[in-house]
UniProtKB/TrEMBL annotation:
InterPro entries: CULT, Yippee/Mis18/Cereblon. It holds the Pfam family Yippee-Mis18. Residues 1-22 form the signal peptide. This is CULT domain-containing protein.
Amino acid sequence: MIFNLYFFVFISYILHNICVLAEQFPRSEKNGQELLLCRKCGADVADSYYLFSKPSPGARKTEKQNLFGQQNVTVQTLVNPFGIKFEVVTAEKARCDNIGPNQGADSWFPGYSWRICACPHCGQHLGWTFEKTDSIVEKQSSENIKTFHGLILRNILGENFTDSLIMMPKMYKM
């Protein structure tokens, strides 16, 4: 009985967030195929339109997957100095609160410093924001990307996936 109550509250909360997001971002104005949401609270954190491939020389594994309405999205398995593995996708733009000062040590992307990227709504760790550092090596590079985000796959989900979890009663279907 308690489980049903928690489930009802959870679904109500998700539906509320989806309705709020739908009002803010009508489908006709969205750039990409699908919005990426914080897995913890359902807040909109990115648009799949901004996913791009930014290879890391430190990736343990790199593969292409069909995710978030996009084909051949690069998914990299990155391991931090503590041995924790993360499956990460990279995005040019994301909504997140950057926590702490830029860190140059142990960056998966040479020439970029990093900060933790947290959900602006609930504070969940979504990944990292990478910012280009001023170094001689990078000045020789032709890349123009100054800032991008590495988003942890297990901490985000696509809006279409959440839509598939919610069943509408037949009387409301058109």
